[in-house]
Amino acid sequence: MARPRTTSDEAVLRAAGRVLGRLGPGRLTLAAVAAEAGLAPATIVQRFGSKRGLLLALARRAGPDARRFFQDARNRLTRPNGVPGGPAGGAGPLEVLLAALQAMAGTVRTPEEMANSLAFLQLDLTDPEFRELATLHFGIVGEEITALLAEAAAAGDLAPGADTAALARSVHIAYNGVLIVWAMTGEGGTLEQALHAGLDRLLAPHRA
């Protein structure tokens, strides 16, 4: 009978994510991930095959993780009936949107970690397999932003006639832009604070 795994693949990927933040994809090694996870390097090889296999597993995890950030924000901030905002209280869809994007950005704590994240972007842009997964992740985030803006419009939180599809694209672009500007300048406090301020300014003219 096979021995049960005492460390799940999910725990290994979380450890790999932490190492990736510190070292970037170029300097990441299976040995460093194994040490972070408390496993033997051979175990990492057995489960993921290679460094590329491990990085691809991280890339596959990004899409579901993004969806989870939005769902967690909904769960934390909405009323018991699951409807954001409204006359009965609770956070509105725009507050849920800002909270979800802040939580996504909160996985990066320093400009160095952002630089390492951007190094992963090089793989996304140059390697077809990584690019496909990055496109999926981008699409998921876009869907979630669009859905919350549509809810905000339906709830009367956006000005009448607001083009939620166009606004969603602007929000998505602004989110990524703030990440890069903050990494370069460090302005605006923490990344979460800079992101909240930047997106709030973008949304302000569209609020009802």
From TrEMBL:
Residues 6-66 form the HTH tetR-type domain. It comes from the Bacteria. The keyword DNA-binding applies. Keywords: DNA-binding, Repressor, Transcription, Transcription regulation. Transmembrane segments: none annotated. Residues 29-48 bind DNA. This is TetR/AcrR family transcriptional regulator. It comes from Actinomadura vinacea.
